[in-house]
Request: fold
Amino acid sequence: MSADRLEAVLDTLRAFVAERDWAQFHDPKNLAMAVVSEAGELAAEYRWISNPEADAWSRDPENRSRVEHEAADVAIALLLFLDRIGVDFFKAVSAKIEINRRSYPVAASRGRPQRPERTRSSGPSASSA
Amino acid sequence: MSADRLEAVLDTLRAFVAERDWAQFHDPKNLAMAVVSEAGELAAEYRWISNPEADAWSRDPENRSRVEHEAADVAIALLLFLDRIGVDFFKAVSAKIEINRRSYPVAASRGRPQRPERTRSSGPSASSA
Amino acid sequence: MSADRLEAVLDTLRAFVAERDWAQFHDPKNLAMAVVSEAGELAAEYRWISNPEADAWSRDPENRSRVEHEAADVAIALLLFLDRIGVDFFKAVSAKIEINRRSYPVAASRGRPQRPERTRSSGPSASSA
Amino acid sequence: MSADRLEAVLDTLRAFVAERDWAQFHDPKNLAMAVVSEAGELAAEYRWISNPEADAWSRDPENRSRVEHEAADVAIALLLFLDRIGVDFFKAVSAKIEINRRSYPVAASRGRPQRPERTRSSGPSASSA
Reply:
């Protein structure tokens, strides 16, 4: 029998939420807000740490423990979000990797990082309030 | 005599940073990271508060005080960021409002909020690492 | 006569919002969400830029223009948020600087950046849902 | 044979990064910045959507597809972050759930959501720049 670690952790999270009657607060909007606020806490840990020192800094046991907890908070909020909207974590990740393969072909991407090349369309479209 | 409140607060902030020898940590990358982590803290205050209760919740003196402080933290990081890259806060805001006027003409926008209509260009462009 | 640039830009923003009937979407929760999502876009511009290159990178006219716009987006969302909850931008910033003076006395802070030294209280307090 | 989906997706991500010579940009600081900027994009999708409509809005196929991609972007950045600092995703999540159990005992938490009850210690500690 194979233990699926994703299903196991989802079961634990669902029970945790149910015991505390928290599902009422866990609509997708609130969970998206939770993801970004926890992500902000992870970013806060590194904001004055320079790039050249970041790997070594993260190896210090105290720092590592803190960022591990912050990253786990992001993960938990994200797992709850995907569960709420009925999406499998690994399927979503795998699908996006394939999209990224096409967006960032090796030849053009080698040594050049992803850049946020976004353009905002002018005005709201058919999508209403 | 007119007091320019922006210049006054910028002078205070510059002195605050200089006294503590903090400019070394305040390159634009770190300041952008500070802006988003402080913004995450502001978002954290509202993450379980529903839209219908948000205005009333914000009027409670204790809540109001906390979100005021979090918003001020975002403002301070943002003022430091713009100062570092040599951009005037109000000029930047006014210029962007004019861009937004064209992006969101009244007729098409009435009753419809801004939507994040973004498309990512495929692959990195001429801009290298 | 002194021109107060804050009042001028707030008047412009209020008119912009009113013309488009957008106040219905601008409760404090949504505006806090707008602040952090715009802050995320600013952070995105710097995510692969290393600290040593950040100042020079920001001086490139194209980059500077983009981060100026992203920073202005954060500023606009923040101004709308503070206006919604009835707080003056400069009063909030000045008050927080004074709090920071006490939190980061010069002698102890010199050369050492602010650190997110936060502890989470165990469990929800009297503050209910 | 049991396929461990986490190991499989990590192998795919590591190869993706190696092919493009991107590890140079993936120190923990940059990856933390990537996590929060992608999280900001997810939050952007919901910023004008009210809580009561959030579940239904997320069921619309177009919206669902977009938020699925944004959530996957957060997940990918987070997986890369944890891999860079040598932490197992599921171990980190399980450990944090246990910490949360103690922080949010059922009796005190029932019907009351987690609140960001944080206090900032005054001044930097022994942890230097």
